[in-house]
Amino acid sequence: MKANTRTTFRLEPAVFHTVNSILLIFLVMVTLYPFLNTIAVSFNDGNDTIRGGIYLWPRVWTLKNYNAIFASGTVYHAFMISVARTVLATILNIFLTTMLAYALSRKEYLFRKPITVIYVLTMYFNAGLIPTYFLIKDLGLLNSFWVYILPSLVSAFNLIVIRTYIQTLPESMVESAKIDGASDFRIFLQIVFPLCKPVLATIALFVAVGAWNSWFDTFLYASSKQNLSTLQYELTKLLASTLNTGGSGNASLANGAGMNKDMASAVVTPLSIRAAITIVASVPILLVYPFLQKYFVVGLNVGSVKE
């Protein structure tokens, strides 16, 4: 009886690890398949993609889908605008939001509660698209690069997360710095800000992804200026042209990309171009994410829960 019990105890871990491994492998396959399929479709010939049956490997290899995207010179300039917008918005948002979060975390600041309530209310109530447009217009931000930066300088959600993280830091460090004569700005810059690295990396990823993927604000506030067009907006216009019925979509892409109509009709299909656009838009963020991954879980958990 004892021998059977020992055998059972030995089998249980093996069975558990086997089943657990199978489930995790299945989960990885289900998670990766859509992205791998998109890569395969993006490298497959557009006319052949219409037949279907593309899974993890292209059936007819081609680079014409990517050539159709980068054939227009506007894409390269739009890429630089998106990079400048993402970098500048992320840096300013992180610094200013952290500075405000530090001020609202100080118990001696009398107005910290009402200001916090005001910011929290903005997460639940929005004036709407039309009042926001008129506000941007009255501020003189229409057709300006700063329309990408100024409206997103401080985020209420990011503010709450960073403030909660700062409140978990030992108060004794701030008190010791004040005894040594350090000002509030110096305490923030040399003590608090460096200690917030995990949560700042997490928030930086949120802000960067949001700024990189944004295109609707370009459509609303800067569509009349080609030199302010972002990569996402240009890709959106390109995708819209391929979704037009008949030959008008192919003709417009051929004119915009400098291709003849025969070449455009051979490569421009909604499925292939959409897949190539998805890869072009997601690769820069995928290259940045590994450097922030180690901070992501720690920063989000600590910044979201206060004991």
TrEMBL record:
Keyword Transmembrane part of the UniProt annotation: yes
Keywords recorded for this protein, A-Z: Cell membrane, Membrane, Transmembrane, Transmembrane helix, Transport
Domain of life: Bacteria
Signal peptide: none
Membrane-crossing segments per the record: 14-36, 75-104, 116-136, 148-166, 187-212, 271-292
Coarse class of the protein's main subcellular location: membrane
Keyword Transmembrane: yes
Domain ABC transmembrane type-1 positions: 79-292
PANTHER family per UniProt: ABC TRANSPORTER PERMEASE PROTEIN MG189-RELATED-RELATED, POLYGALACTURONAN_RHAMNOGALACTURONAN TRANSPORT SYSTEM PERMEASE PROTEIN YTCP
Sequence similarity: Belongs to the binding-protein-dependent transport system permease family.
Protein name per Swiss-Prot or TrEMBL: Carbohydrate ABC transporter permease
Annotated organism of origin: Paenibacillus hexagrammi
